[in-house]
Specification:
Bound molecules: thiamine diphosphate
Number of strands: 7
Low-confidence stretches: none
Oligomer: single chain
Order of helices and strands: HHEHHHEHEEEHHEHEHHHH
Distance between the termini: 43 Å
Radius of gyration: 20 Å
Mean pLDDT: 95
Largest sheet: 5 strands, parallel
Number of domains: 1
CATH architecture: 3-Layer(aba) Sandwich
Number of helices: 13
CATH class: Alpha Beta
Strand content: 5-15%
Helix content: 40-55%
């Protein structure tokens, strides 16, 4: 959780410095969700993510150097510097893309879950999306298909209350996004997304159900993003859409501070916290150096990797 927070703080300063171009959407405030979920899945399980995806990638085992290089548009990055913050992908880690198109990681996850079901393994797929994305048609179509086919797919809605500057109350007909899952016959629950243990417990149950062939679950995590929709937002928005008091009230419920209080009760002392901070700082700064020392792609590379060179047809036998 600390790594995610410090990574996204540093990513924002790199935007200010002009080292990272394109938009960076910070995950700060939401760390308990990605970590709680990832704590109960395996390396061979898959995730799809959205535009606010650094936390999801780090929690799934993403390498800081390769992520920093991708943000900085360097050839050493996860997508050879051609994807940037919103398109980090690693097939080796089961990360089928962070995704700039709102809601569109969800049908990709549906495909991954379908493939695993078809192959007969017990892998699960997690799809992370926001409450804003839950208004997209593709999300609803995916819920319907996942429910009908009992696919091993876990819908994780991170309800941070805003889609850009739009409050969920003004865009969504239901109090809880979990209601939408129930409409498709999917077991759906609301959890405190600022509590890593609550998220973990919900995820454990959902993963078990999916591995047992009992189908999808929707977990709505109530959370909050501390900063603007994207790094730099304060400079471009003329009118704030939420008050400082509102932001502060959520900061009082900070997921890292809550975890820290728990760890103190378990006997972790300040020295250990300081060591964690120092280690995280070192890894991130090494990542920045790695990024800055890496080359940018050449113009010729623009068309490389745009088309698949190998096409595999999926067998239809065995699927009823
Ligand atoms: C299909 C599509 N529509 C609109 C946008 C512009 N857009 C980018 S992020 C965003 C808000 C998404 O809100 P939410 O899904 O709640 O995620 P959050 O940003 O709160 O994490 C919008 C409207 C987009 N990128 N793609």
């Amino acid at each position: 959780m600390l790594m995610i927070r410090r990574f996204d703080e540093r990513a924002a300063t790199l935007v200010d410095e002009g080292e990272v171009t394109g938009e960076v959407h910070q995950y700060i405030g939401q760390e308990a969700v990605a970590v709680g979920i990832s704590s109960v899945i395996r390396k061979d399980d898959a995730i799809t993510s959205n535009h606010r995806g650094h936390g999801h990638v780090l929690a799934k085992g993403g390498d800081v150097n390769l992520m920093m290089a991708e943000l900085g548009g360097r050839t050493t990055g996860y997508c050879k510097g051609k994807g940037g913050s919103m398109h980090i992908t690693s097939l080796d880690l089961g990360i089928y893309g962070t995704n700039g198109m709102v809601g569109q990681g969800v049908p990709i996850a549906l495909g991954a879950a379908f493939a695993n079901n078809f192959k007969g393994n017990d892998n699960v797929t997690i799809t992370y999306f926001g409450e804003g994305a839950s208004n997209e048609g593709a999300v609803h179509e995916s819920m319907n298909m996942a429910a009908i086919w009992k696919l091993p797919l876990i819908f994780v809605c991170e309800n941070n209350q805003y889609a850009v500057s739009f409050n969920a109350k003004d865009s969504t007909s239901v109090e809880n996004i979990a209601e939408r899952g129930k409409g498709y016959g999917i077991p759906s629950i609301v959890v405190d997304g600022m509590d890593v243990f609550a998220v973990r417990e919900a995820a454990k149950e959902a993963v078990q159900r999916a591995r047992n062939g009992e189908g999808p679950t929707l977990i709505e995590c109530k959370t909050y993003r501390y900063f603007g929709h994207f790094a730099g937002e304060p400079h471009v928005l003329k009118k704030p859409y939420r008050t400082d008091e509102e932001i502060e009230s959520h900061r009082q419920n900070d997921p890292i501070e809550r975890l820290k209080r728990h760890l103190v009760e378990e006997g972790v002392d300040e020295v250990e916290f300081a060591e964690m901070e120092a280690k995280v700082h070192e890894i991130i700064e090494d990542g920045v150096v790695f990024m800055k020392e890496s080359p940018r792609p050449t113009l010729e590379a623009a068309l490389e990797d745009a088309y698949a060179v190998e096409h595999k047809t999926m067998p239809v036998k065995g699927w009823a």
